[in-house]
Amino acid sequence: MRDTIDAVIGVVDDTATIIACSDLTKIGTTNEFVSLDLSDSHEIFIRDGYTYKPFGSRVTPDYAVFVEGVDENAAKYASIMAITLSNIKQYYDEKYDRNNFIKNVVLDNVLPGDIVIKARELHFNSEISRVVLLIRIVSANDISAYDVIQNLFPDKSKDFVFNITETDIVLVKEIKNTVDSKDLEKLARSIADTLSSEFYTRVNVGIGTVVVGVKDLARSFKEAQMALEVGKVFDTDRVIVSYDNLGIARLIYHLPTTLCETFLHEVFKRGSIESLDHETLFTIQRFFENNLNVSETSRKLFVHRNTLVYRLEKIKKLTGLDLREFDHAIIFKIALMVKKYLSANPVKF
What's this model's pTM, rounded to 2 decimal places? Predict the structure, then answer.
């Protein structure tokens, strides 16, 4: 370009520092007036006898090219240089950018054999533990949740943040081997609380399992996705859902709906679950929460012990299941979860 264009040409970064120039003496110098213009838009502007054309993939330009002169030819040269360098930067990012590589791995866009080779090229430590968190925006305002999360995790050599949809943001977090599931839930909670309290953005966070290296990040991401989906079906009030804590809900979520319907018919063959009113279902829920303890449950419900026993007998007559017996309680608990799963209208198969 220097040999073709008979003028001083170069590139400035977002701080208006010259990082490349045909006049080598100018490299490293800064023009503070240019930085003010760079923050506005991607349009061509003129300053101090030079024509500038910002470029970059973000809303705020990453760089700008400049050409000595203020005429039409200078503007054309600047535009051509901006397009060329923008394409070069995009190619470089796709080939060498760590964030882009991690995104493709998480989305399962890289062949397993290529992951190892590429990770070696980018100097990824295969012994490092990482976890994927999926942050799903439930309600938001004009504040960019993506920018907030990026600012919460500024170390781009260890933590990676990227969008996959308008509402889903992925965080790939490097962690220590001593971190357990409770620590990860505290981390997720801090993200949700920050977005909620300071930026009035409500989110749910799904947490995958911890993996070592890079190749299993796609699995951790799918687990975070499943955690949110299962949490939505079985516990709509939970903001933080960890794959490790899904328990039997994860198993039910994978069952064919035809099998679930058959199971419900078998369990409630003596009486339909629809015959249980809201008060009865609430009593059952409290009974389970208090570990099938009649005295404790009656105390929490502010009812006489005999009243609770009467309600349990009523349930036994309707369903044939005595919730005071552990095996019957397990069957009833699973049946309620299956009913909730079917009520969410999953794909029939």
Answer: 0.68
